[in-house]
Amino acid sequence: MKYNQSSIKAIVYDNLHAIERLAYDIIEVKSVVKNWHSVLLSFLYNKSTILLHLKSGISIEIKCPCHDKETIYKFIRLIHKSLKSRKISRNRFAISLDGTNTIVFDLDFTKIENINLVRLVYDGYIAGADFKDEQHRYNVSKRKSSLILLGTPPKLVETSDGLVFPLKHTNVGIFIETFVRRIHDFYDYTTDKVVVDIGANIGDTALLFAKKGAMVYAFEPIKENFKAMLNNINMNKKLKKRIKPIYAAVGEDGNKIFYFNHGVEYLGGGASAYVYYSSAKTKEMVKSYSLFTICKKFNIKKVDLLKMDAKGAEFLLTRRDLERVKKLEIEYTVFGEHKLQELIDVIKSAGFSYCIFNHSYSEPIMINQMWTRHGMIYAAREK
Fold first, then answer.
1. Is residue 374 very low, low, confident or very high in pLDDT (cuts 50, 70, 90)?
2. What is the DSSP string of 252-280?
3. Based on the domain organization, do 161 and 205 belong to the same domain?
4. Both 104 and 201 in a single domain?
5. Order of strands, edge to edge, in the sheet holding 130-133?
6. Residue ending a domain, choose from 121, 148, 177
7. Structural domains of the chain, count
8. Do 138 and 248 have their domain in common?
9. Tell me, what's the pLDDT at 40?
């Protein structure tokens, strides 16, 4: 295999990043766990059960998938960051990040809802969220980044918008973008506004837009994600009439094959029909439409907001597609021979003014070059 200069840089970056992460993980584990040597060996030998002897004198046993070291590390970091922690039973452990609200964890990390709870609390806390238990949900006025955990241990999470999601049907990264970092709170979605949501994933944005009064056409091409979206819409029944979920891709007319890692990326947001990466283990064929065809097919006279997170399909937009669109919110991924300027040229030629933001924590460089450049474009039609 031949490597170009970009691939070599990516390999070097990935290895340096892996070493940095390992050093950080060791430091975090050592500060909390007495038997940190054996914990690291358990990871090395892919043990399905991890025994932690905490420096507080507590011992706990965690069940985990052999490949999922990340969840264990995040759980240990949460113990490190907590003001209070205690063992409730053999399978349950509780922490408090603020000294008042209690978060109870089920230590069986082979279950997706328990994994998602750890990731939601850790990633959300780092992103600025505060977490409330049911007992203290009304103690303080909720901020936009407040999340209420429902159940003991929690199986549901409620946002400050009053939306409820089962942890089992939540993509943590996307959920945090929407309800903690609030990257979609840039426009006024008043009653009777029409939103076309391309790449709706678990329905987080569709529900947010509908809660604000919009009528939403939510397109999602991955079957597992689409099922989760339907489940989440049914959890918020009052908004059901404002959302039309559609199992289809958007980009160009025809059938498209999507590549992704189903087992690893459960409810993932990285699937694409336009960015192929060699590690993909699963593929699905789905019907695809251009935005122009969508407007005709569903009799959409105007699109007040086009929200697009389609991993490459944004480069297929044309001036004709954007004729009925007033505002844009596009999460772009530059890949292959494409350049961001191509997309900007189309947006400008269609009469929009725009601004660009990088909303990632960092700017990762991956060997498959899928994420060589990544961010958000917000645009409005010039008057």
1. confident
2. SSEEEEEEE-TTTSTT-S--BSS---TT-
3. no
4. no
5. 130-133, 146-151, 154-159, 164-166
6. 177
7. 2
8. no
9. 82
Contacts of 137 (CB under 8 A, 6+ apart): 148
Residues 6+ apart with CB under 8 A from 250: 198, 199, 219, 288, 289, 290, 291, 294, 308, 310, 313
203 and 79 in a common domain: no
Q: Taking CA 82 as the corner, what is the angle to CA 78 and CA 86, rounded to the nearest 5 degrees?
A: 95
- Supply the range of the domain harboring residue 162: 5-177
Residue 261 pLDDT? 63
Domain boundary among 131, 154, 177: 177
Report d(CA 21, CA 168) in Å as an integer.
27
- Same-domain pairing of 42 and 162: yes
The whole model's pTM is what? 0.87
| Tens digits of residue pLDDT in 194-217 | 999 999 999 999 999 999 999 999
Same domain for 165 and 189? no
Kind plus residue range of the DSSP H or E element containing 93: strand 92-96
* Pair (130, 199) in one structural domain: no
pLDDT tier at 7, thresholds 50, 70, 90: low
229 and 336 belong to one structural domain: yes
Element (H, E) at 229: helix 223-235
The token duo for 105 is 């964890």
pLDDT tens across 237-251, in order?
Answer: 999 999 999 999 999
Q: Which conformational region is residue 240 in: left (phi greater than 0), alpha (psi within -120 to 50 degrees), or beta?
A: alpha
For the cut 80, the answer to whether the pLDDT of residue 16 exceeds it is no
pLDDT digits (tens, 9 = 90+) for 276-293: 655 566 778 999 999 999
Give phi and psi for 114, each to the nearest 5: -75, -40
Residue 185 has a pLDDT of: 87
- Which residues fall within 8 angstroms of residue 150, CB to CB, at 6 or more apart? 134, 156, 157, 158, 164
Which residue shows structure tokens 């094959």? 257
